[in-house]
Input
Amino acid sequence: MNVDLAHLRQWIGRTEDAADQVTVAPLACLAATLDRDDPEPKPGDEVPPAGHWLYFLPRTRHSDIDASGHARKGGFLPPVPLQRRMWAGGRIRFLAPLRVGDAVRRHSEVADVTAKDGKSGPLVFVLVKHTITGPAGVAIEEEHDIVYRGIPPKGAEAAAKPKAAPPEKPAWRRTVTPDIVMLFRYSALIFNAHRIHFDRDYVTKQEGYPGLVVHGPLIATLLMDLVRRQAPERALAHFAYRAQAPLFDDGPFALAGEPAADGAAARLWALDAAGRVAMTAEARFYGR
Output
């Protein structure tokens, strides 16, 4: 499929603004989805890392949703003519806490659109920058990498090897067994109607995946949650993550992490049931 990159790059500089309020219910429902036994959030409580993804949700009218469950192309994001759209990764700077009850705003900008030829066809990358502001000023700065690709030939997808191999016996490890209930609940939390996460007939017959796809932001959220479970005293300053292969609901996957010797950072991985890397991440913490 031909990609008119010059046309798509006309979206660079396009902006979008949204306003919201940090409410209790989404945070409580996320904790339940992550299988946490947290107390009910109350006004003034800090929003946990990745909690900001529960707000500023898309409000696309039903008549503007395409057959895949995505919004029809050509709005804020460029109309890339490739079937698959995925979270490729991102970088988040946590500058100040957001709190329950805060009125918050998000400014988003399409910062870049690039393309390259992959092993299974063309790839288009869209970089979106977000700035989230609360009552005390800028709270979060985020860069979000989105990748578009066509449907590859059957059997062409394989997990990539990370630049640094994960330790065989990581200090932190947790096993997660994804199922349709978990994926449906997370889809509802982020108002994501993409059918690859809950419609087995669609995902296997139309998009050629072997099972329901675990959301990229859910995997990243679970890795941040692993840090919260293993190092609850550390405040996250920066989190960078990169998706390397999809995870499916065909078996359990592992979350693993290895803190740096000085406690200032940690390397993290999500591994499928065969031990292949699906996502890598790096967390950096504020000083003690």
The radius of gyration is 19 Å. The chain has five helices and ten strands. The CA atoms of residues 16 and 108 lie 5 Å apart. The chain has a mean pLDDT of 92.
